[in-house]
């Protein structure tokens, strides 16, 4: 009986030790899981913080770009609004030549410093071919000419002379058009960046199905290969 009692006590102690050890393992396991979850949470938080920082930097860069665009000068080149298309065509038909006044206007908020100006009147077939390219070989540098916001620099173009009667008639008949194009280059004061404006417009005769003239057209935005605002 004494032997059985001692045997039972040993079994009880062994079971208690096993239970205590198992409890420790469970505690360690939960601790490891908790550490893993906390570690994963930290990684997620760090990843989110990194992404937020990147997005914030992108937003700041975009905002800075917008501010630069708002504060910089913008030069546009236009002939006078009162210039009638009929007058351009009739001048060619009657005298064989035409010249126009135009202005370089600063529509931006910062002063511009004009360093190059090139403008020319030419004859081109209508419609203007898709592969037509501008020629700026005649452009000449200028000393920095300041143009304040909302101010403009006016000038008269060199005349376009059409001595050939046949070519003059092609313009009158709408087979050719009169194209005014060119380029201005200028600096801004805020960043000393060189900007360029390339412009193009044209005038043409509109003929009806019966070949009779039904009107004259001024197109302010000409060939896409000739236009750029940088």
Question: What would you say this structure looks like, in words?
Answer:
A hairpin with a 5-residue loop joins β9 and β10 (213-219). 39% of the residues lie in helices and 33% in strands. The strands form 3 sheets. Strands 4, 5, 8, 9, 10 and 11 form a 6-stranded antiparallel sheet that branches. The protein has a 3-stranded antiparallel sheet with strand order 1-3-6, with no helix packed on it. The chain has a two-stranded antiparallel ribbon with strand order 2-7. The chain has helices at residues 2-71, 85-95, 165-172; strands spanning 75-78, 97-98, 101-106, 112-125, 140-147, 152-156, 160-161, 176-188, 194-207, 213-219, 228-229. α2 runs antiparallel to α3 (165-172). The protein has 230 residues and is α+β, with helices and mostly antiparallel strands.
């Amino acid at each position: 009986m004494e032997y059985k009692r001692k045997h039972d006590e040993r079994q009880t102690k062994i079971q208690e030790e096993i239970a205590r050890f198992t409890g420790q393992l469970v505690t360690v396991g939960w601790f490891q899981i908790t550490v893993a979850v906390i570690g994963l949470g930290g990684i997620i938080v760090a990843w989110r913080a990194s992404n937020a920082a990147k997005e914030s930097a992108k937003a700041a860069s975009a905002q800075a770009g917008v501010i630069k665009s708002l504060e910089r000068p913008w030069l546009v080149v236009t002939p006078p609004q009162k210039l009638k298309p009929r007058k351009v065509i009739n001048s060619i038909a009657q005298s064989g030549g035409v010249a126009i006044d135009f202005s370089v206007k600063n529509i931006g908020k910062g002063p511009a410093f004009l360093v190059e100006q090139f403008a020319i009147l030419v004859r081109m077939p209508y419609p203007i071919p898709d592969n037509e390219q501008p020629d700026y070989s005649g452009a000449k540098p200028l000393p920095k000419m300041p143009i304040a916001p909302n101010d403009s620099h006016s000038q008269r173009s060199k005349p376009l002379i059409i001595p050939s009667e046949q070519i003059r008639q092609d313009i009158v008949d709408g087979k050719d058009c009169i194209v005014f194009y060119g380029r201005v280059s200028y600096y801004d004061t805020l960043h000393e960046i060189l900007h360029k404006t390339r412009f193009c417009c044209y005038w043409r005769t509109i003929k009806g199905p019966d070949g009779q003239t039904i009107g004259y057209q001024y197109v302010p935005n000409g060939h896409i290969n000739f236009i750029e605002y940088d």
